[in-house]
Known about the structure:
The protein folds into 2 domains: about 20-75, no CATH class; about 75-120, no CATH class. The chain is about 70% helix and about 0% strand. It has helices at about 20-30, 35-55, 60-75, 75-90, 95-115.
Amino acid sequence: MGEAMTxxxxxxxxxxxxxxxxxxxxxxxxxxxPVALPAFTRELDQAADQSRQGSDLAPLQRFVAQxxxxxxxxxxxxxxxxxxxxxxxxxxxxxxxxxxxxxxxxRMLDDAHAALSLLPR
Length: 121
């Protein structure tokens, strides 16, 4: 099962939600989901290249928003485990299971976006 993450009996988040900056998000990913660091770096490079080419910050802003949501979910062990179950179901289930899993994943992402929009900037 890999190394045990420290979490309280009440299922508290592993870490506080970090500020929505590249540096803070990279540190959070390294701490709670180190296997995702290569994807983080690859996507950051792509977003930075797109931003430079278009002289537009939107790709970097999308990158930060996406990874803030990822960290928001991954820092909560129960939520992260449920997301993994749903992703497996979406990949292997029948049509009804795939539809149900996709719908629940969408709700989880919407909830994460909503929770993050309430945080102080």
